[in-house]
Amino acid sequence: MLEEYFIKPSTVDRIRQSWIATEIETYVTWLADQDYGTKTIWRRVPLVFAFGEFAAVRGALAVGDLPAHIDAFVVERVALHNARTGSTRPMAKEIRGPVEQFVSVVFPGYEPTGRPHHAQPFASAVPGFFGYLVEERGLRPASVKAYHHHLDRFEAYLQRIGVESISEVSPAILSAFVVERSASGLAKSTVRDSAGVLRVFLRYAHREGVLASDLSAAVGWPQVYRLSSIPRSISWDDVNRVLAAVDRRTTVGKRDYAILLLLVTYGLRGREVAALTLDDIDWRHERLAIPERKAGHSTAFPLSAVVGEALLDYLRHGRPVTTDRHVFLRAAAPRRPIGMAVVSSLSRSYLLKAGINVPRPGSHTLRHSAVQRLVDANFDLKTIGDFVGHGSARSTEIYAKVAVETLREVALGDGEEVLV
Predict the structure, then answer these.
(1) Catalytic residue among 199, 254, 319, 367
(2) Alpha helix segments (H runs only) across 226-250
(3) What is the pTM of this model?
């Protein structure tokens, strides 16, 4: 494998004289399998070779010893680079990333530092809370993640005001936290969700004896009316503008076009698009399966000809060759399935590129547009709710409360014709 990237035999011989030569070859094979470019491999192999020599001088005798020498190698490498070039540009990430990646490939069990992973909030003060959410309340991972997010903010607030123990929490502190959240520009619904999470947490802490009294009733929240806002949908002409903004000549464009079509055709959630696998597409019977929807059920749709053509174009000409069964993968190495954040991010990008002005642009904008089109076509709420995976008709009511297109006509003209 080394000969495919390094022309000089002396270079290959030198690498193979390293005490971690086998591991370096394993790493090169892995990089190639993940579709990393030749130039990337040229840059990373000399770096990990130098790391191996550095670790050996410091006493490393086995691959398991390598992690202990990463920090020192990064410091020395940065210092050498700055002394040689006179540059003060931060280099630590560019060195640490490949080295940690190499160690994680050749030493199973090693986890690269990467982005900082926050520990569970209140893990020592109220142990077992997140287990309780899963085991007793039966919450899904996305809901547990929301609890983590809101309690993270509460824990940080207590630290900032000098509260060292949860037993010191009082109604006044709880009220001040909710007020601060409300004043920070968050939507009322977000503040309400934060307060709801806090109530559940406080009730559990009291049940477990961590708090002497149940303080959940001291947590107030803003009044939020279910039908107080209009849907985030856009007109079908605007949808076509978004689709036209995609450059379908590129591999990324082929992928993004298929994703956008799934959102606007079936009203899928970003999570549902990211979770699609090749097994969910039944080409023979022209069906598309969406398993494990938010409401706990699954849906099977007829596979639209337009969607099917876009998926085929991506699968044949845009999707990397891989054994992974997920439909949509990252465009850049390493080849991994995309997440729901990628679906929302690319949706937002194309909405802005098309010049569409909408509050909180993202994948849900296109989902709302798909639902609004069904409402405008006079489908009943039960049918629409089943189509988009709502567990209750109440979830679908928000789309039916206004005639969006009619209101647009009123805003653009004198409105007399539509009011007659």
Answers:
(1) 367
(2) 236-244
(3) 0.70
Query: Does 39 participate in catalysis according to the annotation?
Result: no
Residue from 150, 192, 319, 364 carrying the catalytic annotation: 364
**Phi and psi of 223, rounded to 5°?**
-75, 125
Is 269 considered catalytic here? yes
Q: Establish whether 294 is a catalytic residue.
A: yes
CB atoms within 10 A of CB 118: 11
Q: pLDDT tens digits for the chain (420 residues)?
A: 888 888 899 999 999 999 999 999 999 999 998 889 899 999 999 999 999 999 999 999 999 999 999 999 999 999 988 888 887 777 888 999 999 999 999 998 888 876 555 678 999 999 999 999 999 999 888 889 899 999 999 999 999 999 999 999 999 999 999 999 988 888 788 899 999 999 999 999 999 999 999 999 999 887 766 655 656 788 899 999 999 999 999 999 999 999 999 999 999 999 999 999 999 999 999 999 998 776 567 888 999 999 999 999 999 999 988 889 999 999 888 888 999 899 999 999 999 999 998 888 999 899 888 888 887 787 777 777 777 777 666 666 666 555 555 656 666 665 555 445
Which member of 269, 271, 319, 368 is catalytic? 269
Residue 364 bears catalytic tag: yes
Give me the catalytic one of 204, 257, 350, 399: 399
CA atoms of 86 and 405, how far apart (whole Å):
61
What is d(CA 125, CA 131) in angstroms, rounded to the nearest whole number?
Answer: 14
